């Protein structure tokens, strides 16, 4: 018993020694089995700073990989591919059925490769971090114009030796970085995600970061990014309390089930898609016309309908065209054991938009540039986003109309719910509640001004092309007023919609 204090002291010294090694600035911090540290990684009252280093050889390998998979060289101009995938077909599905068509640049044969990078944050260094470019239209616009502020993803365990503890970044293994390429306010991604969560819709956590990247010739300031939590890494477990159910990242309109359109993010060894198959069967069942109560009951046994209607109301009020209803992407489905298949919004960088999402096919073929259709649209000289998939009646469209009347049967999850009087009433009630409690002009003005002030010191106009899409601080300054005008316009549209019988 007399040796206990000595043993305790020895153990304490060993623990301190191990901790000291893990904090060494020249080695990767050790992973710990603990809850992700949101306060450090996703702060809401400050802007963090990341420094990422790629060697010249690594940057060269990225360019070779992009040329091979996407068809064009960095800074050599880009064209969007020909016809966008139709009927929910992913790029993979399109390739199975035929060529993507179009010009020399496309959305790729597969995702870009991960390469090794080092990362510095808060005086610590993570070595052998996985770094890869990500995205479709934003990536191709920036890549073609030679802009280094590229969208990318970080994986902290991508290159971890098998059999060893997986390293993490304060409990996070993957993180996504959004450059706000078409958003001079730099606020869309973050504010939209915040609004969803405040309204009770689980969505990824977000935070602002100043990002410096060394492409082999020294650190360059690439401006303010929005860091976005990865859905299948930590978001589902944190906000749903479990991760047992299937997590999907679909590219489907839900007209029919096609396995390739439902990318599994977990449970990959089990080729079990019965949950989404049952949902799609129930959604498209003809009983919706003859026995609507029975149709609703069967649909709600597989899919969290009230949750989706609330999401849809919020998405339509803020104005966000780049998701289901115009494009068959930018959402996840999680089969929560207690809530059935549940909708999770993703990639909200095109939120707060009053404009259409594309241009006519003829202009697309000519690869024409088009002036912005809204004051918060892309800067002069930018290529517009790819066109929507034609979900609105009458051809190409943008945001889904508040009354849902313009949505075609190509999007049955919206069209069929809107056609049902019970669900339409629920939807209208969600629109009303959101605009009364959260999306008010007073509340939104405070929210937008607070976020604008937070990042304003780091939006440096002197940082010229090619290290940011933002050409000057003037457009950043104007964007706040334009966002407030958008809120006023949307609330007026809501008032008119709610007055309709």
TrEMBL record:
Biased composition, class Low complexity, residue ranges: 88-97, 373-382
Keyword Signal: yes
Keyword DNA-binding attributed: no
UniProtKB keywords: Signal
Alphabetical list of InterPro entries matching this protein: Spore_coat_CotH_CotH2/3/7
N-terminal signal peptide: 1-22
Region called Disordered, residue ranges: 75-106, 355-396
Transmembrane segments: none
Record protein name field: Spore coat protein CotH
Species classification: Bacteria, Pseudomonadati, Bacteroidota, Cytophagia, Cytophagales
């Amino acid at each position: 018993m007399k040796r206990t204090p000595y043993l305790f002291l020895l153990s304490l010294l060993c623990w301190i020694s191990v901790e000291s090694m893990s904090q060494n600035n020249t080695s990767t911090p050790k992973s710990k089995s603990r809850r992700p540290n949101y306060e450090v990684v996703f702060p809401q009252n400050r802007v963090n700073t990341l420094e990422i280093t790629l060697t010249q050889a690594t940057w060269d390998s990225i360019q070779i990989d992009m040329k091979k998979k996407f068809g064009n060289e960095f800074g050599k101009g880009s064209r969007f591919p020909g016809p966008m995938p139709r009927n929910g077909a992913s790029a993979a599905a399109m390739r199975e059925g035929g060529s993507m068509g179009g010009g020399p640049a496309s959305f790729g044969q597969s995702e870009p490769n991960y390469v090794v990078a080092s990362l510095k944050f808060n005086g610590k260094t993570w070595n052998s971090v996985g770094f890869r470019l990500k995205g479709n239209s934003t990536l191709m616009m920036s890549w073609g114009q030679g802009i280094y502020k590229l969208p990318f993803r970080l994986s902290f365990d991508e290159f971890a030796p098998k059999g060893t503890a997986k390293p993490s970044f304060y409990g996070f293994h993957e993180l996504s970085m959004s450059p706000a390429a078409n958003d001079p306010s730099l606020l869309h991604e973050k504010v939209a995600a915040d609004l969803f969560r405040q309204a009770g819709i689980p969505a990824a956590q977000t935070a602002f970061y100043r990002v410096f990247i060394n492409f082999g010739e020294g650190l360059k300031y690439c401006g303010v990014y929005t860091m976005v939590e990865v859905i299948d890494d930590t978001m589902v477990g944190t906000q749903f309390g479990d991760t047992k159910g299937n997590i999907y990242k679909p590219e489907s309109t839900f007209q029919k089930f096609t396995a390739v359109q439902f990318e599994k993010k977990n449970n990959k060894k089990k080729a079990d898609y019965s949950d989404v198959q049952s949902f799609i069967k129930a959604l498209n069942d003809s009983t919706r016309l003859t026995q609507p109560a029975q149709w609703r009951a069967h649909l709600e046994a597989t899919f969290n309908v009230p949750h989706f209607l609330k999401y849809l109301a919020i998405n339509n009020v803020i104005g966000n065209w780049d998701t289901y209803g115009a494009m068959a992407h930018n959402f996840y489905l999680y089969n929560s054991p207690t809530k059935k298949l549940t909708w999770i919004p993703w990639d909200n960088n095109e939120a707060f938009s009053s404009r259409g999402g594309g241009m006519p096919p003829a202009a697309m073929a000519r690869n024409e540039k088009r002036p912005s259709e809204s004051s918060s649209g892309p800067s002069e000289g930018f290529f517009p986003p790819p066109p929507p998939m034609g979900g609105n009646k009458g051809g190409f469209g943008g945001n889904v109309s508040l009354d849902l009347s313009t949505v075609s049967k190509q999007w049955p999850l919206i069209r069929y719910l809107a056609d049902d009087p019970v669900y339409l009433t629920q939807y209208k009630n969600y629109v009303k509640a959101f605009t009364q409690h959260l999306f008010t002009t007073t509340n939104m003005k405070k929210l937008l001004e607070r976020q604008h002030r937070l990042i304003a010191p780091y939006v440096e106009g002197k940082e010229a092309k090619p290290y940011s899409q933002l050409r000057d601080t003037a457009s950043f300054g104007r964007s706040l007023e334009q966002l407030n005008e958008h809120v006023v316009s949307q609330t007026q549209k809501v008032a008119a919609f709610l007055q309709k019988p």
